[in-house]
Amino acid sequence: MGKSNIAKWIEENQEKFTKMAKDIWDHPEVGYTEIYASTLQMKELEEAGFRVTSGIGDVQTSFVAEYGKGKPVIGILGEFDALPGLSQKVNPKQTPVIQNGPGHGCGHNLLGTAGVEAVIALKERMDAEMLPGTIRYYGCPAEEMLSGKTFMAREGVFDDLSCALTWHPGNNNMTSNFRSQALTAIEFFFSGRTSHAGGAPHLGRSALDAVELMNVGANYLREHVPDGSRIHYQITNGGMAPNIVPDNASVYYFLRGAGRDQVAELEERLNKVAQGAAMMTETSVRWEIKAGCYDTLPNETLNELMYTQAEVAGRMEFSSEEKKFAEELRETVDPSVLAAANEIIFSISDDTNKILETDFYHNRKHFGQTMGGSTDVGDVSWIVPMGQIMTTCAPLGIQFHTWQATASFGSTIGMKGMHYAAKIMALSAYELLKDQSGILERAKVEFDASTKGLTYKCGIPTRVKPPVLNSEAVPVMSN
Can you state the percent helix, strand and coil of the chain, rounding each to 5? Predict the structure, then answer.
């Protein structure tokens, strides 16, 4: 009866959380500026009886909401940051709300709200059955900047969890048994000497030359890195004018690899490239770490649990209007992108004619395989066992970080996927609070085997503080 009561509570209260998700979608905020979203969620959780602590790790928009006492301690992760430049109405044609404004092209308006919905539903059941244990919702900022959870992890707020559960809006209903890549984000700042580029070029020492030489060296380095490693960069300062030898220039790098060790080696080699470029141009160079997240460790035990709860949660259904919207949205996507979609998202459905996925899959096929993206969720997965799923919030073939994704994540399609995820997380956490079959112990054994005895060490040095951004700032990072 307990599980059916949880599902029923979510169904009866879903309008409240639909409004929250749409409210956050209507007020998109990029990483470290999510005042509106975090305040909205904290208020709802406080009114529901949770103890809320904010400003975790010196991040203004981070918080932890806790209910209950004793063990087990079950954490549910939430996010709420938007992406720059992806403003879009709920429309199958590209129609920004604000030209070049931010938008929820990764569905974090849904991701965090489902977590709030799940823990409040679970709290109601804990009260009704007087269940022991502690549940926590983690309001995590700036996932798109790949560092919000990392700063929180550096404060140790995940250390005493028995396990964590999370999800992500997607094009499928499935367990997330694949791995993301570890990443280090690092910006290099070169300093030289300015001069008149026409009248006295010999007196200048060009910081921009150093940046360009560094990029050449990095591109040669690509041939000599482990398979699967990736190096991306963006020139963030190229000088003021063509006729001025620039005395300051900078370049921003993302380094990805299968694990933290691989990325640390890449970072060491790239630092040498930067030093070489400085030597060649008689400039100086310094660098700053901006993010340092881990690869994700899937936990088969917890993912299996979440899969079994999907059966209790029931099957997703979409209306004819939602199907029509999905078809129209897909028509705006290049056919080659649609054709490659299954490979990109590790889909395991063989039905290429599907537009909105309603079946739920336990994705054993891709267990442990590495996808191209990165996320600070990986940090949590190296601290405690973590279960993760995806649910259908957008049509098959729609890529994240696009205007099409923003449109879908603000639509009733996205809302249905959000409520489905909330049910599965709440039902899974309920099972873990009761834990009559030793799931937590098995998850910990698997976790210990996966980590091979390695202890989590934060990838962002202690000297690096979280950025303090105003609401007008537009970060350049995304996962």
Answer: 40, 20, 40
Cα–Cα distance measured from residue 444 to residue 384, given in angstroms and rounded to the nearest whole number: 8
Measure the CA–CA gap between 463 and 479, rounded to whole angstroms. Answer: 23
**């009561």: which residue's tokens?**
5
CA–CA separation, 58 vs 160, rounded Å?
20
Full strand arrangement of the beta sheet holding 182-191: 230-237, 248-257, 182-191, 284-293
Q: Which CATH class is domain 182-293?
A: alpha beta
Whole-structure pTM over 0.70, yes or no? yes
Q: For residues 74 and 68, what is the distance between their CA atoms, to the nearest angstrom?
A: 10
- Contacts of residue 469, defined as CB under 8 A and 6 or more positions apart, other chains included, come to 30, 31, 32, 33, 475
For residue range 174-216, what is the model confidence (pLDDT) as tens digits? Answer: 999 889 999 999 999 999 999 999 999 999 999 999 999 999 9
Tens of pLDDT, residue by residue over 10-19, are 999 999 999 9
Q: SS3 sequence, 302-368?
A: HHHHHHHHHHHHCCCCCCHHHHHHHHHHHCCCCHHHHHHHHHHCCCCCCCCCCCCCCCEECCHHHCC
Domain(s) of CATH 3.40.630.10: residues in the chain: 2-180+295-451
DSSP codes joined into one string, 374-385: --THHHHHTTS-
Using CA atoms in the order 449, 452, 456, 461, what is the torsion angle rounded to 10 degrees? -150
DSSP codes of every residue in 261-275: HHHHHHHHHHHHHHH
- Structural fold of domain 2-180+295-451: Aminopeptidase (3.40.630)
User: Could you give the residue range(s) of every CATH 3.30.70.360 domain in the chain?
Assistant: 182-293
Q: Would you state the structure tokens that stand for residue 308, as one six-digit string?
A: 């079994």
Residue 26 CA: distances (Å) to CA of 50, 95, 109, 402: 26, 14, 9, 17
